[in-house]
């Protein structure tokens, strides 16, 4: 138990790791061909204090939700750090989300503050005010907007608010197999314990430089990458968006790179990726989606580096990792390595009994990194935990005799596309509401760039002449672009088993060659 004097605020731990030289560069966000744009550690400390003071001035109840849908920028990181400092709960939202999605998140989370891009202020503020949000600010990726304008009048000194380890730091919405998204509640202790384990396990050291190329509204870019660099006092080379050419050009200045498999696939497609380009890299890490063994091998052949694959999720942050140090074992392609120190991981059969090594079953986990539950969904939370406190991940896998974990599938009906999760149930729900649609089934099929993409198969109501492309175009108005199936087929009937359930495995089989490389 923490005592009243120990502040478990995550920001306090990150701040304590800043280097002694506060004028050193913490983040270099210079765009190719652009003016130098660098932030020192002192800039991070002072500017996040100003935003934290702005939040304080609003006199919000403790642990208010601060919902943020803005383009990736260093200022968005400052807002995240400020939220931690001020003792509120950060709620990041993918910029691809459309009004129906934002409406749900804001209605469900009831944020006290919403921060959006200046261009979206009209529709976002309407949704927010309707949901009872009192404060809506704007933040552009060029430092424009009311958030920074208001913060510029605030003091640049701020003591992090006292927080206990199990106080909430962030809520990440993850879609559900039955449609509606659930807010995974992560505490200061969840995030800090995971960041500390990864710092040690991945051998973060003095002089490390992280090339930060991922979005910052999900676990990978916001926690694994950002916390990794901050907790090590390491400089980040900041990319507002991933571009393989720019990434390869920046690699020689970096020692650590983290990406979803699509980032590796896209860099491999560029001949500029050579051994020389990666000469200073210490560690390449992949996660969020399965890394194909071909990508693992091609990367090894081209660069001489063995990608370290790890496995995690929004509810748990990181769970397993291939070893960094040779003495801990080899990095095995196709596996996600060993449970991280402090993580209990077991594989169980349908009755919940642990299976012997090598056998396949549901993956369950327990540890200080496992979340506090789903926001305002106590029943859903209870369903997802076992009596002895293990969280049911919904992933299916096995652990071999040497302890390596392999993910072989998912019991949840989920498509992972370019590292983003897409839940067929959500897409089908929207499609089924469209005029003329009797029923739909969305399945994931292999894709050379995104790993997997969605394909929709539709049946029309009697007499309706469905146009698949027109339906997809209409869907775009309602859902984030990465969720839109890449193809739609109108058919007479869907394959069903004797219980009448649609046999998605047959649809996947039928369409698996659609995007063959
Ligand atoms: C973009 N598009 C996608 C897509 N991303 N389609 C399917 N899946 C995706 N992931 C489509 C858009 O709809 C659009 O199509 C077209 O591609 C161009 O859009 P874009 O935004 O310009 O794409 P691009 O910049 O190329 O983005 C690709 C990407 C991005 C791979 C860089 O998807 C990305 O950053 N992925 C990383 C996701 C991530 O960080 N996941 C971590 C989750 S945390 P159209 O037709 O609309 O024009 C997690 C836990 C863990 O899972 O373990 O880490
Ligand atoms: P999210 O809910 O977006 O956090 O996604 C988490 C899911 O991504 C996990 O439950 C896994 O299904 C998947 N995932 C993450 N890392 C890996 C990996 N290395 N290999 C396979 N699947 C992964």
From TrEMBL:
Domain AMP-dependent synthetase/ligase: 26-375
UniProt xrefs under CDD domains: MCS
Residue span(s) of domain AMP-binding enzyme C-terminal: 426-501
Alphabetical GO biological process terms: fatty acid metabolic process
Example GO molecular function: medium-chain fatty acid-CoA ligase activity
Family, similarity comment: Belongs to the ATP-dependent AMP-binding enzyme family.
Alphabetical list of PANTHER family matching this protein: ACYL-COA SYNTHETASE, ACYL-COA SYNTHETASE FAMILY MEMBER 3
Protein name stated in the entry: Malonyl-CoA/methylmalonyl-CoA synthetase
């Amino acid at each position: 138990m923490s005592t009243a004097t120990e502040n478990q605020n995550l920001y306090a731990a990150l701040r304590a790791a800043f280097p002694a030289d506060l004028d050193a560069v913490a983040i270099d966000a210079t765009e190719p061909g652009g003016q130098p744009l660098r932030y020192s550690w002192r800039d991070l400390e002072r500017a996040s204090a100003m935003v934290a003071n702005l939040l304080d001035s609003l006199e919000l109840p403790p642990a208010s939700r601060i919902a943020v849908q803005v383009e990736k920028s260093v200022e968005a990181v400052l807002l995240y750090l400020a939220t931690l400092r001020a003792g509120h709960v950060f709620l990041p939202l993918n910029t691809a989300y459309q009004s129906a999605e934002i409406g749900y998140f804001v209605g469900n989370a009831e944020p006290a503050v919403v921060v959006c891009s200046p261009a979206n202020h009209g529709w976002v503020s309407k949704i927010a005010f309707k949901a009872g949000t009192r404060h809506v600010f704007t933040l552009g990726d060029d430092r424009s907007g009311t958030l920074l304008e208001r913060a510029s009048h605030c003091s640049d000194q701020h003591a992090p608010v006292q927080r206990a380890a199990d106080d909430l730091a962030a809520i990440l919405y993850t879609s559900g197999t039955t449609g509606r998204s659930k807010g995974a509640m992560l505490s200061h202790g969840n995030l800090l314990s995971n960041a500390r384990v990864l710092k040690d396990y991945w051998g973060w050291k003095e002089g490390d430089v992280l090339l930060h190329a991922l979005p910052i509204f999900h676990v990978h870019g916001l926690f694994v990458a950002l916390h990794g660099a901050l907790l090590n006092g390491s400089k980040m080379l900041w990319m507002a968006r991933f571009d393989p050419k720019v990434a390869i050009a920046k690699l020689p200045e970096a020692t650590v790179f983290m990406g979803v498999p699509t980032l590796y696939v896209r860099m491999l497609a560029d001949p500029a990726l050579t051994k020389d380009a990666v000469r200073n890299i210490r560690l390449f890490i992949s996660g969020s989606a399965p890394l194909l063994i071909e990508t693992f091998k091609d990367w090894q052949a081209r660069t001489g580096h063995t990608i370290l694959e790890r496995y995690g999720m929004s509810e748990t942050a990181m769970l397993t990792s291939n070893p960094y140090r040779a003495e801990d074992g080899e990095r095995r392609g196709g596996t996600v390595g060993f449970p991280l120190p402090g993580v209990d991981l077991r594989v169980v059969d349908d009755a919940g009994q642990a299976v012997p090594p090598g056998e396949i079953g549901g993956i369950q986990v327990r540890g200080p990194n496992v979340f506090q539950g789903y926001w305002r969904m106590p029943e859903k939370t209870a369903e997802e935990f076992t009596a002895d406190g293990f969280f049911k991940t919904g992933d299916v896998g096995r652990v071999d005799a040497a302890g390596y974990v392999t993910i072989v599938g998912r019991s949840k009906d989920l498509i992972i596309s370019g590292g983003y999760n897409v839940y067929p149930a959500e897409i089908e729900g929207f499609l089924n509401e469209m005029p003329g649609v009797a029923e739909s089934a969305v399945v994931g099929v292999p894709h050379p760039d995104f790993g997997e993409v969605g394909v929709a198969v539709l049946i029309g109501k009697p007499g309706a002449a469905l146009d698949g492309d027109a339906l997809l175009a209409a869907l775009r108005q309602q859902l984030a672009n990465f969720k839109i199936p890449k193809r739609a087929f109108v058919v007479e009937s869907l394959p069903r088993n004797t219980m009448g359930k649609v046999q998605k495995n047959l649809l996947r089989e039928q369409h698996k060659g659609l995007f063959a490389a």
